[in-house]
Amino acid sequence: MLINDFFNKYYSDIKTKGLTKDINVPNSMIIQNIDEEWKEWNPVESIINKYDILKIEDTYKITLPEHYKEYICSKQFMDIQINEYTVFGINEINTIENIFKTFPENTLKYGFIPIGQINDEDYIALNCHNENIVSFAYADYSFKKVLFKDFNEFIEFLMEKI
Questions:
Q1: Into how many domains does the chain fold?
Q2: pTM of the predicted protein model
Q3: CATH number of the CATH domain containing 124
Q4: Dihedral (C-alpha) 54, 59, 64, 66: value to the nearest 10 degrees?
């Protein structure tokens, strides 16, 4: 399963580098408290299920692509940073609902959902109609370009960069 392989490879890489520490970590993901602020974390099973997905799809009148559903239902994870790409981690604090609030409602209604950022600037979005991964300008959410043909291709690209 590509998504699980991706999570495992990424987590193994950051753990080796000592980068599994953060400040705002969900309780279920905490391994140990480093100090009053910093906590060491590890991924845990996702809290999102098929009913949550149906609610999201009904609320936004979209159909989430299968590979993205697999991603959000696999693990609770912190943000994933590989080179210039950040993929939003979904967990008890950084919920899918909070991530969706990143975009204006009309952008969501057109079927574009936020999945990350490039260089902490432009947004990365998933087009739920044709599954393309695209970029949007940070300032005004205007479409910039297609980055990848689908979520799976995007994850495969990121795996190569780990």
A1: 1
A2: 0.92
A3: 3.40.1580.10
A4: -10
Query: pLDDT tens digit string along 10-45?
Result: 999 999 999 999 999 999 999 999 888 999 999 999
Residue 1 has pLDDT above 80, yes or no: no
| Range(s) of the domain holding residue 120 | 46-161
Residue 11 CB partners (closer than 8 Å, separation 6+)? 20, 42, 43, 77
Q: In terms of Cα–Cα distance, which of 116, 113, 129 is closest to 63?
A: 129
Instruction: Kindly state the tokens that stand for 156.
Output: 């495969």
Residue 145, SS3?
strand
Which CA distances in Å does 72 have to 39, 44, 46? 23, 12, 7
